[in-house]
Amino acid sequence: MPISRKRLFHHAPPAPATIYVRPGYNRVLAEQFEGLKRKRVELVKDKVEAHSQGDLRENFGFKAAKEAIRAVDRKMTALDRFVARNTFIEVDPATWLTKPTTTLQLGHVTAIEKQDVATKRTHRFTFLVTTHGETAVDEESGIECLPHNSPLAKVVLGFAAGAQTQVRLPAGESILTVRSIRNPTQAELDRLLSEIKPPEIEEDE
């Protein structure tokens, strides 16, 4: 059987990963999938009703229902693959308040200095290394959420305070230095951790 051009140049699926999430995330995933299933059932009913109305060549209701079903199917497939390709471990942020700060781990607040190799310009950021999908910024303290599976977090996790490394980032070659590691406060967690929401899934082509 010849290999199609699409199959030949299609990107390989990502390797399975362990993704740390907050309690309730697995339930939200399941609820999202069940919601899509219910929506599909209703759309099929709309499609059947539109089909009974005559000439399909000019039946816009039938065509719209058919396309809507395809869109839901794509979302269901993408969500199913997202769940199948990853292992989700729920963690309690309450444990972040007192965990050891010898090396940078999930739940720590860290000050990271980034120096651009080409321009020598230096920038400093304060991050809460957090669970998958968190993007909030604490306006009071200036702390930003840094998901543990982001490219930057993957580089610095496990480093001790004072550790330094040179990496290539999208903006160019940079030197990263972990300036400090500490535990968050409860007030910081309250401001930074948002309501758990379903993931935004990228549909495969």
Describe this structure as you would to a colleague.
The protein is α/β, with parallel strands linked by helices and 205 residues long. The protein has 2 domains: 14-90, Orthogonal Bundle (Helix Hairpins), CATH 1.10.287; 93-192, Transcription elongation factor, GreA/GreB, C-terminal domain (Chitinase A, domain 3), CATH 3.10.50. The chain is 34% helix and 23% strand. It contains 5 helices and 7 strands. The strands form 2 sheets. It has a 5-stranded mixed beta sheet with strand order 5-4-3-7-6. α2 (25-51) packs antiparallel against α3. The protein is elongated, with a radius of gyration of 23 Å. The relative contact order is 0.17.
Please give a handful of descriptors for the protein shown.
Chitinase A, domain 3; Helix Hairpins; alpha/beta; two-stranded parallel sheet; 205 residues; 7 strands; 2 domains; 5-stranded mixed sheet; disordered N terminus
Given helix and strand content, the structural type is: alpha/beta
Shape summary: elongated
Supply the number of structural domains: 2
State the end-to-end CA separation: 22 Å
In the sheet with the most strands, the strands line up as 5-4-3-7-6
Find the count of extended strands (DSSP E, 2+ residues): 7
Largest sheet: 5 strands, mixed
